[in-house]
Recover the amino acids of this structure.
């Protein structure tokens, strides 16, 4: 696999060739990765996959016209041909008044911050096989488990580099490891599935195979024999496995392109109270070993922790340079490579209410552990999704439920949202358990 210095050199060379071919401005990104994965089922290895790949994305500007091409061939002659092609394409493209590189004065200078994203541990397929086997064995060992969809373990290493014609060149490397299991409880029409997984930058950070497997098995068993619930309005408690999805709808709504097009239900809410006063949401790209940490954005701008929401008030849009120009604002360091915006490690701050207290206050409601389908209107904020979980009665989870739909409007849901105190940093986007009163439930 390419080293960081090799990837940066290829990006620099591609930029120079596109400039020589007539481009007014250029940027190039190079990515390389190698991964190994092992899948097992019923105690036998089902698959072992190993892949390696390298790619170059070259973007050229001729005035306000822009085009992009990609290639996996980096020889000098190949770069020459690629440069000539992308410049010819840009000259034929329609004008885009907002096209262009990021402002030169905003580029990251100096060495990128050290975020500890790369693990030097060598992981052979035998080690991954053993982890997957142990994970499935633990899941199948849970009483009530009758079958398995399998378990898998994987390891991935990657390099990312970016160079621009106005002075940026940088790169970094990452690793990631994952382990998962999925099993089935019951037989016939009673069958229910359960799964569990964990991902980390360092192999030593992974939760134990036994713990992941047991959790998958227990989740399958506890879903057996779901009951039907009547339709009505009631409190919904979102488990941490699914509560972060509410943040995902929010970050999509504050993306600069959606705001500029007027297709976001939050398009007029900058500086306004969007959540309850106790809610704060932060995007932190510098978290050491974070699953989405990065030293710079997709345009070469520096990144730093930023509060997207503070005390309930929307603080910023997510802006790449194109959206910033369209909105007469400055880019925020959220550019994604290839266009658009992307967040890093986003989390909703923990609230003050313990989980047990939050659940104990619900006389009758639904504890949601699974969401199904998309069901969100990005323009209006209307929300309707299939769900499964547990019936709450008198403050306790009593029976599993499935085949229900929960509905509301995200504007109202965000204002009514109450976070518990049980925040855990486990995913790329994290939120504590969340309670929202007054949602509509359509029973199965």
């Amino acid at each position: 696999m390419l080293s960081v210095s090799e990837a940066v050199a290829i990006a620099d060379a591609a930029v120079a060739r596109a400039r020589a071919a007539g481009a007014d401005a250029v940027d190039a990104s190079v990515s390389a990765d190698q991964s190994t994965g092992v899948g097992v089922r019923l105690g036998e290895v089902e698959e072992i996959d190993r892949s390696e790949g390298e790619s170059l994305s070259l973007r050229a500007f001729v005035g306000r016209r822009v085009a992009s091409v990609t290639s996996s061939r980096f020889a000098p002659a190949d770069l020459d041909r690629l440069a000539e092609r992308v410049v010819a394409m840009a000259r034929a493209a329609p004008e885009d008044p907002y096209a262009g590189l990021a402002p030169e004065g905003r580029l990251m200078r100096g060495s990128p911050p050290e975020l500890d994203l790369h693990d030097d541990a060598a992981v052979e397929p035998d080690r991954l096989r053993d982890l997957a086997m142990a994970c499935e064995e633990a899941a199948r060992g849970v009483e009530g488990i009758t079958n398995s969809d399998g378990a898998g373990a994987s390891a991935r290493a990657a390099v990312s580099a970016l160079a621009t014609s106005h002075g940026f060149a940088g790169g970094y490397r990452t690793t990631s490891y994952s382990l998962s299991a999925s099993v089935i409880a019951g037989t016939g029409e009673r069958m229910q599935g359960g799964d569990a997984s964990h991902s980390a930058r360092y192999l030593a950070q992974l939760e134990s195979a036994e713990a992941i497997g047991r959790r998958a098995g227990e989740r399958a068993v506890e879903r057996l024999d779901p009951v039907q619930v009547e339709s009505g309005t009631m409190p919904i408690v979102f488990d941490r496995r699914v509560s972060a999805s509410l943040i995902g709808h929010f970050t999509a709504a504050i993306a600069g392109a959606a705001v500029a097009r007027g297709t976001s239900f939050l398009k007029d809410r900058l500086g306004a109270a969007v959540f309850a006063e106790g809610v704060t949401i932060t995007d932190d790209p510098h978290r050491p070993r974070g699953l989405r940490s990065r030293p710079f954005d997709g345009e070469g701008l520096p990144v730093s922790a930023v509060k997207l929401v503070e005390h309930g008030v929307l603080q910023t849009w997510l802006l790449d340079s194109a959206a910033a120009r369209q909105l007469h604002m400055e880019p925020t360091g959220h550019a994604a490579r290839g266009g658009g915006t992307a967040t890093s490690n986003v989390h909703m701050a923990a609230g003050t209410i313990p989980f047990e207290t939050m659940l104990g206050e619900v006389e009758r409601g639904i504890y949601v552990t699974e969401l199904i389908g998309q069901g969100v209107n990005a323009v209006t904020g209307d929300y309707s999704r299939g769900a499964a979980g547990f019936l709450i009665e008198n403050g306790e989870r009593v029976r599993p439920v499935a085949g229900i739909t929960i509905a509301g409007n995200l504007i109202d849901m965000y204002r009514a949202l109450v976070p518990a105190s049980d925040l855990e940093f486990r995913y790329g986007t994290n939120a504590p358990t969340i309670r929202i009163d007054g949602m509509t439930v359509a029973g199965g």
